[in-house]
Amino acid sequence: MSEAIRFYYRGSEHAVSDASPNRTLLQYLREDLHACGTKEGCAEGDCGACTVVLAQLDNGELQTHAVNACIQLLPSVHGKAVFSVEDVAPPRCAGQERQLHPVQQALLECHGSQCGFCTPGFVMSLWALYLTHQAAQTRPTRAQICDALSGNLCRCTGYKPIIEAAVRMFELPAAEFPHQQWLATLQQLQQKLHASVAPDTCPSYSAQGQVFYWPQTLQQALQVRASTPQATILAGGTDVGLWVTKQLRDLNTLLYIGQIAQLQQIQTVDAMLEIGAAVNLNEAYHALCQHYPRELTEMWQRFASMPVRNAGTLGGNVANGSPIGDSMPWLIALGAQVRLQSVRGSRQLALEDFYLGYQQKDLQADELLTHILVPLPRPNWHWRTYKLAKRFDQDISAVCAAFALEIADGSILNARITFGGMAATPKRAMAAECALQGQAWDETTLNAACLALASDYAPLSDMRASQDYRRNTAQNLLRRFWLETRPHAPLTQEQINVFAQPHSGEIA
Ligand SMILES: Cc1cc2nc3c(=O)[nH]c(=O)nc-3n(C[C@H](O)[C@H](O)[C@H](O)COP(=O)(O)OP(=O)(O)OC[C@H]3O[C@@H](n4cnc5c(N)ncnc54)[C@H](O)[C@@H]3O)c2cc1C
Ligand code: FES
Ligand code: FES
Predict the structure, then answer these.
(1) Probe ligand 3: pick from 46, 108, 114, 125, max atoms within 8 Å of CB?
(2) Looking at CB atoms within 10 Å, which of 176, 212, 220, 484 has the fewest?
(3) If DSSP codes are grouped into helix, strand and coil, which group holds residue 330?
(4) CATH code for 5-87+179-261?
């Protein structure tokens, strides 16, 4: 039996039973609810004009985070609360002057808006930042402000006044968010949703000949996978959403894994960090950076933008398997594994064996990627990953590299090098690895490895970079790795990281 899509918006529960499961949250807000404060710019998660805040339960806690409404399929907000720019100002009381929220007041005082098209998106990203820091009773650093705004583009005001507003909003009289009230409301909604579904049935929504499955357990998801292998698996939708908005594809059957608690956990098992496939990118990188702060923090900051990382998952990045995805090079260099499950059982394989060719994966029609297993730090291993793109934030890699060496008694015992953007899949550099194996980690070995690297790949020229650029920078990145990890006088992070200056430092 088809359920309705149920969510809270502007204080009341909405039940949708006739919208196509391919309809985006943005389309629904603007065209059906006529809530036109939320804007559409790019319809692909790139500009932030459509930013809204979702509130949802996560392990019994209320979580609020900014996402791009333009690429969120409407059924994915089932059981959640949606907040748009219309929600931010306190309700107007009769006979009183209009009140603004500190986010709005600060933007006004700091002249943070000109044409105003981008402003609702900035307001929502700033509001999400405000809620997080109000709840924790902290103030954001400049780096945290820049990160929170990494998904918002402004073409006329410039970012300085907007960043100033982000500081100013915490100096104004505080506005409280009814946290406990929303926690209770969403708990009640969840109870109602669970009560309405027959036991052992996978809840689903159908309309206009299309079906959207919301499995609550891994078992339900695997059963749908077995019975309906043509269903498109949907995690955060930051790739799949664009198939709808940009490629205008009709996704007739969708299997959404975002409500399966078993796939949202991170745990340490046998010296591996086991990350569920539905863990979002921010949570996954946060956990990984606890173990690899030096190696992964910049990659975390530079992966897409805050709203994309709030929605998108590490599992989706791996399963999508784009040759220019940012997680696969370092995952492969570290020797990460993936676990695949079906009703027939479970298997585990090295991530590098998962990719068979361009957009081809070793994933059977009834299988689901359930976990990514990342080795924890091991003695004598040195590794780095680097992303080359035209912008610091919110850009796709032209070349993405990862280098890992095990060095003991002055010689290289193991070398693992992986590049993205250089071949049809994320691919190891076997010739360069051979040139490093058993050698001392010195400049002679480096030069031999750089020469060998030239024979490892035949990269393409495209809009992001030419073949020559890719070849040259691949060698330069290997040289950078050497400069950072050479036994004598390795360069410090400050000496190497040209981006460190504008993003560092406390504001207050
Ligand atoms: C504006 C923007 C910027 C981006 N920037 C970057 C970037 O800097 N670096 C980068 O690497 N990527 C980037 N991406 C791509 C995207 O955000 C990532 O690939 C993200 O990790 C995808 O995760 P998702 O949960 O949204 O996947 P989805 O879109 O839900 O799914 C992606 C693919 O994986 C499949 N899939 C998902 N989960 C599973 C599973 N458990 N088992 C089997 N198949 C599954 C889906 O069917 C689909 O084919 C960007 C995207 C946008 C829109
Ligand atoms: S409209 Fe540009 S990010 Fe959504
Ligand atoms: S104020 Fe015009 S785009 Fe930002």
Answers:
(1) 114
(2) 176
(3) helix
(4) 3.10.20.30
**From 233, 296, 355, 418, mutation site for ligand 1 pocket: most ligand atoms within 8 A of C-beta:** 233
3-state helix, strand, coil in the chain (%, to 5): 35, 20, 40
What's the topology of domain 102-168? DNA polymerase; domain 1 (1.10.150)
In the chain, % of residues over pLDDT 70? 98
- The separation between CA 407 and the C-alpha centre of its own chain, rounded to angstroms, equals 33
Specify the CATH architecture of the domain 265-496. 2-Layer Sandwich (3.30)
The pTM assigned to this predicted structure is 0.96
Distance 24 CA to ligand 2 centre (A): 11
pLDDT at 392: 86
Is any ligand 2 atom within 6 A of the Cβ of residue 308? Answer: no
Q: Locate CATH 3.10.20.30 in the chain.
A: 5-87+179-261
Write the secondary structure of 424-446 as one string of H (helix), E (strand) and C (coil): CCCEECHHHHHHHCCCECCHHHH
Q: Please, where in the chain does CATH 1.10.150.120 lie?
A: 102-168
Does pLDDT of 199 surpass 80? Answer: no
Ligand nearest to the CA of 421: 1
